[in-house]
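Entry 14. Two folds queued back to back today. First construct below, sequence then structure tokens.
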Amino acid sequence: MTMGDELLLLAVGTGRRHPRIRSENRLRIALSAAELAELCLAGRIALGTRRIEILDPAPIEDRRLSNVLLGLGRTVPPPSLHDWLRLTPRSLITEYFSRLEDQKALRSRRRRDAAGRTRHDILSVDVPRRRGVLDRLDTVTRSGPGTPPADPRDLALAVLVRVADVAPAVYPGVRGAAARRRLAARTATGTALLASTQAAAPFGEGDAESPAAQTFLPAGQLANELVNLYSEVTTGDQGLAHHLDSGGWSDGGSGSHHD
């Protein structure tokens, strides 16, 4: 599973009678950020201050990620991080939902409502597989002084879970409050390290090449950009708000549709 697959699987809350996807408007762009994070950690791209730079254009094992890498390479001029995320297609959740269905990670049914719109009812989720992803996320929330450093991939996933507001689906209700606070604290530490690293040296120079910096740099950059994009929705950016209109997946028959 890619980081995007894992993020969507975590976003499907399982604490209700009918599973439902959490925070769809934010999740769509976070899925695109997950693709960039994975390409970054694979050494295929770098997130520059003005543009996304291709480091290695060779195809990779996952077809979806290879197509994203190909699209980045074909974009002229090279896209900025802001523009690439801002233009995330509305169909991205649908594409990842289909991927999870193909992998038997979840099961759904499609139906037409009275207005002729297609609705997707989530019937079941592969709980053991979701639990495996959650166990890795827990290694981030429980990390700290005296524990091994978190895996960079798991850290990036944890940052996206927090910023995209998926944490309430991962750690639901009052019982999950402590875990949500730990997640926020640990991912905030990563963003703080990003800021101190950039202040010490520009990207690609000096301390920015240290293992700790390389762990937090992509996750911190993506988190900052996602926060900026989400804030545009609430401050009257009509263009972005149009692309983030409400839509989604029904919880067994009472939700909204997704185009």
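Second construct, same run, same settings:
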Amino acid sequence: MTGTLWYAWRRQRGQLLIGLALVVAFAVWAVVEHSSLMSYIHGHHAPLCKGWNGTCKNNPWSIVAILDSTGPLKLACGMSMAVPALVGVFWGAPLIGRELESGTYRFALAQGMGPVRWFAVRFGVAAACSALGSAVLAALVAWWWSPVSNMLSGLYWSDGYIYDATGPAAVACALFGLAAGSAAGLLLRRVIPAMAATLAALFVVRFALFALRLTWLTPVTRISPGMRPKQLIGSARSAGDWGYIAANGSYHDISACEFSGDRLRKCMEQHDFVSRYYRVFPSHDFWTSQWIATAILLVLAVALVALIVVRLRRRAL
């Protein structure tokens, strides 16, 4: 290992080794917890019924499996969700900021290494390791959660814990955190202010993406003729829109007939309602939303890296 790659390793080996140790420890913990969960499920023949209306809602073994696993799963999700912040604050912000603050960048440039190459190799190593580490953690959380996913009162695909801790967006967010930290370090030229700016940027972007994630999707409308029982919501997420359809095809809010039984039948006849409807986001919308969020995060990361390269080409150090 020589040249710029050796320099990148030497300057980042602390983060690399600590990150590797944390991922290995997390993997061991996830394997132990998943094995314990599966042993309990198989040992008690606990049925795994998906959806809010799961038929095993009165089975005590299923309830215990969900309750016992939810706490550790939330903790695991929290650890996975923390990766972008850890990467951005402790890897991205010092990547350039510490070099500028201490003046050690002059050593690299004095060896005939151009500023863009100096940044590109170090950022490339950090990006590859961050993407791999976050992908492993996201995959482990998803694997651990899968036996009790979308069950009764457990964790669902639309919950913040699962949404932010699994899927491709978790990896893209780690890369965005690294790019944001690197850009902050270059622009602010001090590590501590760069760390604070990185945390702020991650909070704003992540909060916005989570708040907007369902606005990118079109809910599915489920219709039941007359007063027939409505289709169970299952693993879908309610869009908060339900009511009645009149004979002329117009939709009316649930407030038009907030009754049941005979009172509901009379109210529907009075308003000429022929069907009931409600709108939901199916569970497969998780992936649609994830890929949209991933694309947004990667575009932001690329834009920040481009900004850094432009500044470095001007030798603005």
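Quick look at the second one. The first strand starts at residue 220 and ends at 225. The beta strands are 220-225, 237-246, 251-253, 273-281.
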